[in-house]
Amino acid sequence: MSAVSEKSDLVRPRKTTEAPVPAVPTVDESDPDGASVQYSRYRTKLSNHRTGLSEHRTSLSEYRTDLSGYRTKLSADRTEVSMRRTGMSFQRTRLSADRTLASVIRTSLSLISFGFTIFQFFEKLASSHLKSTAPARNFGITLVALGIGMLVIGIIYHVRFMLGLRDERKAMAAQGLIHAQSAFPPSMTLITATLLLGIGIVAIVSMIFQIGPFS
Hints:
By secondary structure, the chain is an all-alpha fold. The protein has a domain at about 85-210. The protein is built from 3 helices and no strands. The chain has helices at about 30-125, 135-175, 190-210. Helix 1 (about 30-125) runs antiparallel to helix 2 (about 135-175), helix 1 (about 30-125) packs parallel to helix 3 and helix 2 (about 135-175) runs antiparallel to helix 3.
């Protein structure tokens, strides 16, 4: 019997009412023919009794088979859900890595912008109000360099983490553990971090050598 697809199709057989075993007949041994007929009828009754029990056992066996098929289908459905859930966890991990890199971008941007502002502020005051602005200028350059260094480390960590995540995803997809149908889109956070790194490098070069668009 084929496995059913819905639990509502499963109908448990009714509990059988156990019939009493036919009693052994009392025969007249002096009449062999009559005794043979009585024993034959007795064997027929026993056979009918066993047939009834066998039919009930067959119904129970078919019910257990259908129930096993239903459990197998549920197990397959749970496996499918688990595979999709695992696949989505890779996407969530990727987004979490993007959020981590975004935090690095915010911190680096604060350091670069604050350091550049300090440098430019004391650079403007150097000609008229202050005799020496070198310490403040050096402090601003240090902040910009710190922001650039943090950004470089954040980008390297993000790229290595994402490459490892992609390799792990491909390996699990090859083993049939996940579907991996959706591809990883380009990381806009990584693109932004790379652009900010370029701007920071141009800014610190302009601050040190007084060349470039920010000098």
